[in-house]
Amino acid sequence: DEEAVLAAAETSRALITVEEHSIYGGLGSTCASLLMEHGLHNLFKRVGIPDEYTFTGSQAEIFAHYDITPEGLAESAMQLLG
Fold first, then answer.
1. pTM: predicted TM-score of the whole model, two decimal places
2. Span 35-44, average pLDDT
3. Nearest Cα residue to 67 out of 47, 44, 51
């Protein structure tokens, strides 16, 4: 919902989107476009599968490899916030 994303951006220093698939063309890209269209320049990070030959394994193994875990997301947030 656009209004929810904009409200979050107006009350937050940073936003992180998390996807179980490619970071290109998904939720993160849509949110980034929305923020730019509204002149909001929050710190922003897309977490998901990069554009590369992907690691194979169980869902848990894939998420761990790409840091799509609670610990990985916490580390991404800490790095983003500096």
1. 0.85
2. 96
3. 47
